[in-house]
Amino acid sequence: MSILDNVGNTPLIRLKFLNTQRNVKIYAKAEFMNPSGSVKDRAAKEMLLDGIERGLLTKQKTIIDATSGNTGIAFAMMGAALGYKVKLCIPSNACIERKRLLRVYGARIIETEPLEGIDGAIMTARSIAAAEPDKYFYPDQYSNRANIIAHYKTTAEEIWYQTDERITHFVAGTGTTGTFTGTSKKLKELKPNIETVIVQPDSPFHGIEGFKSLDSTLQPDIFEPQLVDKRIDISTEAAYKMCRRLVREAGLFVGISAGANVEAAKRLAETAPDNSVIVTVLCDSGTRYFSEPLWEDINDSN
């Protein structure tokens, strides 16, 4: 058995501490329990296996892509397991824990201009791959349909059965939009009246790593805006506050994007009809954010 065989089938956890005093339930998919520690294991696995199957990824090629951290860590872990070299373009202001993890797995890092964000990393990766196409396999997670397929085939199906087909709302954030798009697409086929909600930072300048403001950055090619029934904008401060609540009130030590997703689910629950079943995503582990302001003065926080 390979470590890739352990991707997916993550638990669905009831967030009882968010009791709305109404008959509305909020659940969260524990994606931080994937082998490399994030939801991105699903997409990385599908993209690499698709590349191998189509003959695009060979042992002579190096995997290269742009990342804010989590997909890169998944690529690095899987590259190590499968015997591929990995090179990743990442904004230099990405948190140090993620960059250290990439190096631990043996990936080579190219740090890009911080003010250009993930868009700068994307342009750098594209340029390198285009200059030497025989040397690199460029999955391009922001444009690769396998990113969507991973969630269409696995995440959505798992949620459907874990809720006994009772899910009424799905909430997920921006980034590559693979999780939102793939999961929403399948869930709408299974239940056409389901409400799918996308979560965005409330400002182009934010601290929710892994999330994009689609109004001010390059829109991923795989994004299907027609799947969006509602959009909820979350501030960095609100995401931080929910992260602290999750660890202190539910024992769930998760990252900032997970805090944003759960905060959005909580707000949605305030007006959702009775008997609603809301599902969101705990994208990654909080261990990747120790250096972030989120955990400053944690002993004094509530």
Question: What is the domain tally?
Answer: 2
- CATH level-two architecture of the largest domain: 3-Layer(aba) Sandwich
How far is the N terminus from the C terminus?
A: 43 Å
Unreliable spans? none
Topology as H/E string?
EEHEHEHEHEHEHEEHHE
Question: Which of globular, elongated, flat, extended, rod-shaped describes the shape?
Answer: globular
DSSP strand tally: 10
Calculate Rg over CA atoms: 18 Å
- Helix count, per DSSP? 8
The CATH topology of the largest domain is given as Rossmann fold
Average pLDDT over all residues:
93
Strand content: 15-25%
Report the helical percentage.
25-40%
**Class computed from helices, strands and strand pairing:** alpha/beta
Give the CATH class of the largest domain.
Alpha Beta
| Largest pleated sheet | 6 strands, mixed
In spatial order, strands of the major sheet run 1-2-10-7-8-9
Written account of the structure:
The structure is a single chain. The chain has 8 helices and 10 strands. With 302 residues, the protein is an alpha/beta fold. It has 2 domains: 3-38 and 146-300, Rossmann fold; 40-137, 3-Layer(aba) Sandwich (Rossmann fold). The strands form 2 sheets. The protein has a 6-stranded mixed sheet. A 4-stranded parallel sheet has the order 5-4-3-6, with helices on both faces. Helix 1 (40-53) packs across helix 2 (70-82), helix 1 (40-53) packs across helix 5 (145-162) and helix 5 (145-162) packs across helix 6. The radius of gyration is 18 Å and the shape is globular.
